[in-house]
Amino acid sequence: MWRARIINFAKIFEHPAWGFSHFRRTYDLTIELAAYQERIIDEDCIFAAAYLHDIGAFKPYKQEGKDHGEVTVQNCDKILQELGFPQVKIPKVKEIISSHMFYNNPSNNIESILFHDADTLDFMGIIGITRILSIVGIDDWTPDLASALKIVRRFCNELPQKLYSDKAKEIGNNRKKEMIDFLDKLSAETNDLKLL
């Protein structure tokens, strides 16, 4: 029952780049990475972390000047208890969420590592480009198209080094190639981005 409650709770968080669809992709990819590596993981904790990890970026939880992951962790106990999630597993969910972003280092547990990799991979490749372009003009990251493309280029160069598991690195290399191909073709079609 708690899984259905978490899904219903998470559905209210709609955003073109980090809403419900991103939650689902991150969950699915974490499960895939674990299967590729034949690792046993706590799927309950991954499920809860996936559908909650970015809620600190949304009202009513968002706090100006605070990292959204930190805000999410602060609210996890209450939310998960209300949704009927097993109390004993909440600390692991909080650990997974606290290091999910590419700019953080995951803890040593396998769930944190794979979840961090899955979340990072969702900023790469065609899906990563789409997510970044979807927030042009509506997010501080991307006030205009030129700034969005700078982020795409930066993520293409930097994010592969932020991956930990072997399978994530392999997927990351493929997604990096997709990003390079996109940027090269866009540059060719826009006179080195001068005609955007």
Description:
The chain is mainly alpha-helical. The chain is built from nine helices and no strands. The chain folds into two domains: 1-101, Cyclin A, domain 1, CATH 1.10.472; 123-196. Helix 8 (145-158) packs antiparallel against helix 9 (166-189). The protein is globular. The chain starts with a helix and ends in a 7-residue tail after the last helix. The mean pLDDT is 96.
Order of helices and strands: HHHHHHHHH
Estimate what percentage of residues fall within beta strands: under 5%
Helical element count? Answer: 9
Q: Specify the CATH class of the largest domain.
A: Mainly Alpha
How many E strands? 0
**Main pleated-sheet profile:** none
Quaternary form: single chain
| Ends distance | 49 Å
Count of domains: 2
Q: What class would the helix/strand composition place it in? A: mainly alpha
CATH architecture of the largest domain: Orthogonal Bundle
Q: Which value, in Å, is the CA radius of gyration?
A: 17 Å
What is the average per-residue confidence, as pLDDT, rounded to a whole number? 96
Unreliable spans: none
CATH topology group of the largest domain: Cyclin A, domain 1
Helix content: 55-70%
* Net shape: globular
